[in-house]
Amino acid sequence: MDKSPLGDRTVVVFGGTGALGSAVVERMLADDATVIVADAAVPKASDGHVGVQYVIVDALNEDSVASCFDSLNPAPWAVVNLIGGFAGAQSIADLELSVLRRQFELNLVTAATITKYAVRHIKAGGLGGRIVHTSSRVATQDGHDGFSYSVSKLAVVRLVEATATEVRDDAITVNCVMPSIIDTPANRASMATADFDKWPKAHEIADVVSFLVSDASALISGAALPVYGRA
Fold first, then answer.
1. What is the pLDDT of residues 184-199, one digit of tens each?
2. Which of 26, 46, 66, 80 is the most buried (most CB within 10 A)?
3. Over the stretch 45-80, which tens digit does the pLDDT of each residue have?
């Protein structure tokens, strides 16, 4: 994919300190974007990316998200949301409602809150822009033994579809990527016998995000793009 012409544009990456987040930040920097990372904690100066502004944000707190956006000047061109949480296997018969509620909070409520303020500020900028969320392949599956996680990620897809329709006349596109299990050190450790070669790499998913925030993706909105690798 061609690099995005982002030299005069700001990209805000929510959840930009994890394995996927770091890869996305590196790709945005390579695309010459001004990058702001918003996360629950910020790295030590020696561990962060040079030239990146780090902001502490509690994505479960609407006031915190609103304050983050209010501090941006100019308005961002793109908002990339990588925040989310995973719940392990649990049958419907053993469903813990606290887990179900927590998954909706971590995966849907955070995404909806970020989208609310991203739309407001990108609209106010008057130049259009991009919003990219992270769903999961499980959103397309039947959810057995993982209903809470699956349905919360499916809800993110509906959020993308609804928002894309609402902002179609504002030159704002809204999409999400749907990874399978990503090749990260943590995932390797938890599935030591898996075939890691088949898993999508964080930098490969970052390439797709780069395309979605670029001018070249202007015709794509409301889409959930599978980024499964060969998994």
1. 888 889 888 888 888 9
2. 80
3. 878 999 999 999 999 999 999 999 999 999 999 999
Question: Is residue 2 in some structural domain?
Answer: no
The verdict on residue 65 lying in a domain is: yes
Number of domains observed in the structure of the chain: 1
d(CA 204, CA 43): 23
Contact criterion met (CB below 8 Å) for 36 and 60: no
- Enclosing domain of residue 140: 10-227
* Half-sphere CA count of 138, side-chain side, radius 13 A: 20
Which tokens go with 15? 């959840």
Q: What CATH number corresponds to the domain at position 204? A: 3.40.50.720
- Cα separation, 80 vs 14, whole angstroms: 6
Residue 5 lies in a domain: no
Query: Is the previous residue joined to 76 through a cis bond, with omega within 30 degrees of 0?
Result: no
Q: How far apart are CA 94 and CA 56, in angstroms?
A: 36
pLDDT band at 44 (very low <50, low <70, confident <90, very high): confident
* Cβ atoms of 9 and 77 closer than 8 Å: yes
The whole model's pTM is what?
A: 0.95
